[in-house]
Amino acid sequence: MEVDTGAAVSTISLKQFKAKYPQKLIQPTSILLRTYTGEVTKPVGKSRVKIKYENQTTDGDIYVLMVFTELKKEISSDKVLIPYTPELPLILATDASPTGLEAVISHVLPDKSERPIAFASRSLTDSEKNYSQIDKESTAIVWGLKKFFHYCYGKEIILMTDHKPLTRILRPEKDLPTTSAIRLLHYASFMAEFKYEIIYRNTKEHANADYLSRLALQHTKTETLDEEATYYLSQIQILPVTRNEIRKETRKDTELTKIINEIQGELPATDQTLTNPTRRMFI
After folding, report:
1. Fold classified for 2-73
2. Which of 45, 46, 69, 97 would staple 26 via disulfide (CB 3.0–4.6 Å)?
3. Number of Cβ within a 10 Å radius of residue 93
4. Residue 130: helix, strand or coil by DSSP?
5. What pLDDT is recorded for position 59?
């Protein structure tokens, strides 16, 4: 027997069923359910429960579905995912919820539709949960770029976010003020290595990234950064340091100036003051 779920059929996930009806047993069933898109799914079973409809309570069958297993199977099938093709445009859609991050890397097909290549999600660490929303959203973008680095690096990509302020703050043609929050400066420094355009998309149209950020995989590895090294690197990216400035500042150092002059043969070999610094440079 096959039932079209367009009819009045009540379904519930196995996890929700166990939480809501811990004393109820699941009875086997041969019924198959058909979705609106035509796919057929087999319930784990059914159970007789109290169903409230239009302020009236009655007994009815509720069908229990192994939702996560079916969803995982569908998401990883060729009906959803497509292989990476270098010639097609790339979109990286990211989002952050109070508990997790999500990134979806997709191709834009000639008919302007989007088809995902891969999905990724993780939960936030305890410290990340204390971030402001703008920091969470920017963390999602940077994490997505790192996760799909081999897809994104060296290729023009579109970054898609539902956090509108970030489309102005992280525009590639805009330099952040040196007084900006240090985390955003770090992120902007990292993102400068990529060729991207950042675009805002309404949350209602951003469901692929939004949904999985709320059902993120458990975070099992904390990324550790050398904060001091990261800070100095970010300053190098921000400040206009040139070769001429490095040359000028080097000449101000007495020891380095003597070493340079000795190497260039501009000082007599009898100058004993060069022995120790020169030895240190070449040993």
Report:
1. Cathepsin D, subunit A; domain 1 (2.40.70)
2. 45
3. 28
4. helix
5. 74
- Please give the backbone phi and psi of residue 182, each rounded to the nearest 5 degrees, phi first: -60, -35
Q: In whole angstroms, how far apart are CA 86 and each of 67, 90, 106, 155, 255?
A: 34, 9, 12, 9, 52
Q: By the 8 A CB rule, do 43 and 29 touch?
A: yes
Q: Which helix (H) or strand (E) holds 55?
A: none
Looking at domain 81-234, its CATH superfamily turns out to be: Ribonuclease H-like superfamily/Ribonuclease H (3.30.420.10)
Instruction: From residue 31, give the alpha-carbon distance in Å to each of 1, 7, 28, 131, 241.
Output: 5, 14, 9, 47, 71
Question: Which residues lie below 8 Å from residue 129, measured CB to CB, with a gap of 6+?
Answer: 98, 99
- For the chain, which ranges sit under pLDDT 70? 1-9, 34-40, 53-54, 63, 65-79, 176-180, 207-241, 266-283
Report d(CA 170, CA 166) in Å as an integer: 6
pLDDT for 3-61, tens place per residue? 444 445 677 777 777 787 888 888 888 877 765 455 667 777 888 877 776 677 777 77
Confidence at residue 185, expressed as pLDDT on a 0 to 100 scale: 83
Mean residue pLDDT of the chain comes to 76
